[in-house]
Every structure is written in C-alpha cells, then in structure tokens.
Amino acid sequence: MSQIPMVDLEGQYKKIEQEVQASFTDILSSTAFINGPAVHTFSNNLSEYLGGVHVIPCANGTDALQIALMALGLKPGDEVITVPFTFVATAEVIALLGLKPVFIDVNPCTFVLNEYQLEHAITDRTGAIIPVHLFGQCAHMESIMRIADKYGVPVVEDNAQAIGADFRYADGSTKKAGTCGTIGCTSFFPSKNLGCYGDGGALFTASDELAARIRKIANHGSDVRYYHSEIGVNSRLDTLQAAVLDIKLKRLDAYNEARRKAADYYSVGLAGLPGVTVPKIAQYSTHVFHQYTLLIEEGRDEVLRHLQDLGISCAVYYPIPLHLQEAYREGSSYKEGDFPVSESLSERALSLPMHTELTAEVQDQIIRAVKDAVHAREQNKHL
Q: Within a domain: residue 4?
C-alpha cells in the first residue's frame, strides 16, 4: 500500500497551479511583497464572504489570538476562560500576556466548550472568553454570547479550524463561524481548510473601534508611520500568501463540501464498529471537518500503530490536555481528574486523513484498515 497522507496539498495545488503561478509572477514583477494590492483584495473578499465584518490580516493564528486580547485592553492577572482540549496556542497567548487561563471542560459529543459550565467559571476578574470551534464545528455561540452579555465579558472566537462553518440561531438565522462574538481569529496554516503556502492569520470584528485598534496593534502600535501611540507587534500577511488565499477563497465552499462528503463516507463505512464512535454533528452548526476524529474506547494506540504500519497517516489531537501540560502546571491548582471529558478524549481520539482530494478508493483502504485493527483487538480480548 502506498503512503496515504493526512493532507494532500500537492493534489489541491495542481488544480489551481496556473492561477497561483500567474499571481506570483505579477507580484514578483511588481515587488509589492508587503501590503501589496492582493492583501487588500483578499481582505475585502473575505469580509464579503463573512457577511461584511472587518477583516484584519496578520502573520499567523497565534498572533491573531494575542492581538485580540491586547485589543480588549486586558490587564495582567485578568482571567480568560477557555478549554483544555485544544491546540496550545489558545492558552499560550493568555500566559504570554500575563493573564490567567481558567479552564472549563468540553462537551463529550462535539468536543467544544461546554456552555453549561460557563457561567459558574465567571468571576469579577474575568476579562474574556475564548471558545474554540474545534475540528470544524462551532461552539454554541448563542448560549455563550447570552451569558457573556449578561456579565459584560467580551468573547474571542478561536476559529482556526472552522472557517466557512455556519452557526444556526434558534430563530433560523445564521452567521459564519468567527463572526458571532466580539472578535474572531483564524489561522491560514497550509493544512487549514483555507490555507496559504506559509504562515498567515486574520482577525474579524463588526466593531469599527476594535478594528481600528487591532490594525494599530498589528502595525507596531502605529496608525501614522513612525508615530506610536501604544505598544504593538509586527504581524502582517505577506502579499504572496494573500494571493494564494484569494484563489482558494473562491473555492472554500466547494472544499468544505468535499470534506463533508468524505466525512459522510467514513461515517457510513465505520458505522456499527464495536467500541468506535464516529463524529457527532451539532444541530446548531454545520461541520467543515478540518479533522475527522473517531473515538476509540479501547486500544486507540494499537489502532494508530496498525494504520501507521500500513502507511496510513493518522494523528492524535490532542494527547495531553492543556491543564496537564508541564508549561501550564507551575502555579496552577489544576490536577488530573479536574476535566474528565478532556482527559478521556485525549486517550480515545484518533484523527484519520481528511482533505479535499480524498477518493472513495483511498477511503476504502483506510476504513478496511481501521476495521481490521478493531476486529483484531476484539479477538485478542477473548483469547
């Protein structure tokens, strides 16, 4: 069996190669490598796609989260509520700014922030809430915003994995993921649903005031060259990456639909497998399947090794929840057992290859390998 990758960026590139090469040739000829026309074109087009919010590009998704918290004017010691089952960047920026991460557990079915635990975590020191739209679907933003508005707490959406997903409100209206809260943040890392060929990120907000502040912070705290009214950072999306993103943005809905079809194929093929749970889709959100993640009740690592031995890439997101990471244990009162759902997911989650170029033939190989590994595990239990 040939190697099966987690993401097939080469196959995706071949379909847009001529457009990318033409854009790169224009930019290389113009030498407008920083803040060139393609950056503004992409920002405007992404704003339109997201319903008209301000879009401020930056260097990467981690910078986006940090700039968002800086723009909210939080002070050292302020608390930021988020989840321990996520990529480290979500908590990393909190710690870098001298803020205090306050964790609450995730929903055991959808893996996103458990909104029923949110209100109990809010104190008079709460400065922000960061729900993570994990693996491709939204946290319950309507409930989260209701609670946040009650206490006057801003909400920063970590939308690195769910760009293009729709949140459905109880009245039937919808908003794009990343546009429901105070500020939305995303990453354009190459493997993302909307990814460039290097690093990149962006922030979204409906607030004119916040948009102006975010732009200033991302530009060394300056809105007039060489005049700096506050401490900022240097974080920008280069022109070549913006050109790639604008080409891919036109195809984002088609890319996400291809991922949904691949996810459906997996779920049908793996249905009823003992001890294996396929992804659950929330009623209030569409799912764009940045990852397709199974829960394997026993022997997750045995299944992982079996697939890897066959040349099938797979991954564990995330093997250690953030409250148990060494970097976040010093000075923390959190201990093993505090967030049982996150800890359990870290032991059971296994993500299969997921990208826009998956074929039924390749998926059949992957499904067969998962089934073989699970059946072997079941047989070994009875020996």
A: no
Residues 241 and 257 in one domain: no
Q: How many residues are given for the chain?
A: 383
> Cα–Cα distance between 159 and 203 in angstroms, integer?
10
**244 vs 21: CA distance, rounded Å:** 10
3 is a domain residue? no
CA-CA distance, 118 to 102, in Å (whole number)? 10
Radius of gyration of the chain (CA): 21
Co-location of 54 and 188 in the same domain: yes
| Same domain assignment for residues 288 and 337 | yes
Number of domains in the chain: 2
Instruction: Tell me the pLDDT tens digit for each residue of 97-156.
Output: 999 999 999 999 999 999 999 999 999 999 999 999 999 999 999 999 999 999 999 999
Q: Which domain holds residue 268?
A: 252-381
The percent of residues above 90 in pLDDT, for the chain, comes to 96
**Residue in 213, 163, 167, 168 with CA at minimum distance from that of residue 192:** 163
Check: CB of residue 312 under 8 Å from CB of residue 366.
Answer: yes
Place of tokens 């700039």: 67
- Crossing angle of helices 252-270 and 239-249, in 10° steps, is 60
Helix ranges, the chain (H): 9-30, 37-49, 61-71, 89-96, 118-121, 141-151, 208-218, 239-249, 252-270, 300-309, 340-348, 360-381
168 located within any domain: yes
Look at the block and give the residue holding tokens 């801003």: 154
